């Protein structure tokens, strides 16, 4: 994805109040990220417990504007060996937790949320780029890796659309 600065990150949030957006602390490593290796930028707020954000790159259907979602980690602890809904990594290199997002617009104002299991620190972009093992002779590992990247992009976008709901047009 293309690099974003803190004000662009704040402006991207589709389900945050003005105050929530201004309270956001950008990722500490924002200046040294390898953006080309990211399908999304997710991070936990360094100052606010349980608060996290995920920003997706622009999409042609949204005028190529980046869109971000404010998330809250649920109190519930997922069962062991939970799988991230986005990268579906089976080797579990990191913790997976339950995140909930308030829906954008009117639905969110009456308390509607969308929830999903995700890598705790949004390691998904890294996970899907790990070259998969040789499943069988002639297995195209590079194609399999690219397929995982594509699935990650599809699933994270589907989550964003679920958060936007009817507000998508706006
Ligand atoms: Zn993941």
Description:
GO terms for molecular function: zinc ion binding. InterPro entries: EF-G-binding_C. The longest helix has 24 residues, at 141-164. The chain has helices at residues 6-12, 18-23, 105-109, 124-129, 141-164; strands spanning 41-44, 51-56, 67-73, 96-102, 113-119. The relative contact order is 0.17. It has 170 residues and is α+β, with helices and mostly antiparallel strands. Strands 1-2-3-4-5 form a 5-stranded antiparallel beta sheet. The chain has one domain. Bound molecules: zinc ion. Residues 84, 86-87, 89, 118-119, 124, 127 line the site of zinc ion.
Outline of the structure:
The chain has helices spanning 6-12, 18-23, 105-109, 124-129, 141-164; strands at residues 41-44, 51-56, 67-73, 96-102, 113-119. By secondary structure, it is α+β, with helices and mostly antiparallel strands. It is globular and about 55 Å long.
Question: Which helices and strands appear, and what pairs or packs with what?
Answer:
Elements: H1 6-12, H2 18-23, E1 41-44, E2 51-56, E3 67-73, E4 96-102, H3 105-109, E5 113-119, H4 124-129, H5 141-164
Antiparallel strand pairs: 1-2, 2-3, 3-4, 4-5
The chain binds zinc ion (ZN).
Zinc ion (ZN) binds at residues 84, 86-87, 89, 118-119, 124, 127.
Number of domains: 1
Q: Compute the gyration radius: what is it?
A: 16 Å
Question: Strands across the major sheet, in which order?
Answer: 1-2-3-4-5
Task: Choose one word for the global shape.
Answer: globular
Please trace the helix and strand order, writing H or E for each element: HHEEEEHEHH
Individual helix count: 5
According to DSSP, the number of beta strands is: 5
C-alpha end-to-end distance: 23 Å
């Amino acid at each position: 994805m293309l690099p974003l600065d803190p004000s662009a990150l704040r402006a991207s949030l589709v389900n945050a109040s003005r105050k929530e957006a201004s309270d956001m602390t950008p990722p500490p490593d924002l200046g040294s990220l390898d953006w080309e290796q990211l399908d999304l930028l997710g991070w936990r707020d360094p100052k606010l417990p349980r608060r996290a954000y995920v920003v997706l790159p622009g999409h042609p259907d949204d005028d190529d504007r980046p869109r971000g979602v404010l998330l809250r980690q649920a109190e519930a602890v997922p069962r062991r060996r939970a799988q991230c809904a986005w990268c579906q990594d089976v080797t579990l290199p990191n913790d997976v937790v339950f995140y909930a997002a308030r829906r954008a617009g009117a639905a969110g104002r009456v308390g509607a949320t969308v929830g999903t299991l995700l890598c705790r620190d949004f390691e998904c972009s890294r996970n899907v780029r790990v070259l998969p093992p040789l499943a069988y002779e002639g297995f195209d590992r590079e194609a399999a890796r690219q397929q995982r990247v594509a699935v990650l992009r599809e699933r994270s976008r589907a989550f964003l659309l679920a958060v936007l709901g009817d507000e998508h047009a706006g």
